[in-house]
Amino acid sequence: MLRIALQSKGRLNEKSLELLREAGISVEENNRKLLSKSSNFPIEVLYLRDDDIPQTVSCGIADLGIVGYNEVVERNHPVEVLQHLEFGKCRLSLAIPKYIEYPGPGFFDGKKIATSYPGILRSYFENKGIACEIREIAGSVEISPSIGLADGIFDIVSSGGTLVRNGLAEVETVMESDAVLIATPGLDEEKVRTADILMSRFTSVLRSRGKKYMLVNVPNEKIEEALKIIPSMKSPTLLPLADKGWSAIHAVVDESEVWEKADRLKKIGAEDILVLSMEKLII
Ligand code: ATP
Ligand code: MG
């Protein structure tokens, strides 16, 4: 039995559970329960504050965890990062009041910076040989400059809207982050086997995200041209239609390219273009 630590509530909770669900793993979603077993996979879920996940995994109380990469780096407990999970995307950036002209990182020499990520910030400035005063605060970092607590901030940014609303401008990106699957270093063989199955299921789920299944009928003499428009993963499926002289091509395409490809296919004489959602892509 593997134990996986997930954020109990917050930005990563729902998406982590969704990933497990899409990987075919049922867990009871009762937030008042701290520990719940899956009914169809040898795993149990431990719900924690995200701050506590790296340490819990590092010392083996949980074998695996899903947490922001930013927390893994900040907490600096020895864990193995097994997989980037491509949700919870954000960056950690330095920002200063927007009316101040920014001359480069040297600006921060001797300045006060408010952050909840002192570890990452300290090593960033140490590498650059810049000495600044770090003021660690737990939340509402973005109001620090306007209340005189700091000259600038170092915080999580995703759209940048919060910075703009607080009159701040992002001046340096220090690191990019997304949710990651982490593991206790040196798991035993049986646990590694279960973790491998979990990871390959996660890979299938992540690969199918943003993909569509496209079926299109083309006159046989246009097949080659059509295959240039919709190259598939290995080679697309090509099926003869009952109507001689026509074939159907089946291919997996990026959702963002569906319309552009459909327009080009129609131009070369393709008909009956069907676009279906892709549930799983198991490789
Ligand atoms: P907890 O109560 O578990 O300690 P928290 O308040 O510290 O939660 P959340 O705000 O839920 O944390 O964010 C969890 C993670 O989501 C962050 O560490 C980061 O990796 C990711 N994230 C992605 N986008 C954002 C964003 N715009 N703001 C904050 N976190 C984000
Ligand atoms: Mg937290």
List the defining traits of the structure above.
Alpha-Beta Plaits; alpha/beta; six-stranded mixed beta sheet; binds adenosine-5'-triphosphate; 283 residues; 3 domains; D-Maltodextrin-Binding Protein, domain 2; 8 helices; flat; binds magnesium ion
Please, could you describe this protein's structure?
With 283 residues, this protein is an alpha/beta fold. The protein has eight helices and 15 strands. The protein has helices spanning 13-22, 53-58, 69-75, 118-128, 161-165, 189-208, 223-229, 258-267; strands at 2-7, 35-37, 43-48, 64-68, 80-84, 90-97, 112-115, 133-136, 152-157, 168-177, 179-183, 211-219, 237-240, 246-254, 271-277. Strands 2-3-1-4-11-5 form a six-stranded mixed sheet. Strands 8-7-9-6-10 form a five-stranded mixed sheet. The chain has a four-stranded antiparallel sheet with strand order 13-14-12-15. Adenosine-5'-triphosphate binds at residues 7, 10-12, 49-51, 68, 70-71, 88, 90, 156, 158, 177.
Bound molecules: adenosine-5'-triphosphate, magnesium ion
Task: Supply Rg.
Answer: 25 Å
- Shape type: flat
**Percent of residues in beta strands:** 25-35%
Our measurement of the CA-to-CA distance between the termini, rounded to an integer number of angstroms, reads 25 Å
Major sheet summary line: 6 strands, mixed
Helix residue percentage: 25-40%
CATH superfamily of the largest domain: Periplasmic binding protein-like II
Under the CATH scheme, the architecture of the largest domain is: 3-Layer(aba) Sandwich
Enter the CATH topology name of the largest domain.
D-Maltodextrin-Binding Protein, domain 2
The order of strands across the largest sheet is: 2-3-1-4-11-5
Q: pLDDT average, as an integer?
A: 94
Question: What's the tally of helices?
Answer: 8
Low-confidence stretches: none
Structural class: alpha/beta
Helix-strand string: EHEEHEHEEEHEEHEEHEHEEHE
Count of strand segments: 15
Regarding CATH, which class of the largest domain? Alpha Beta
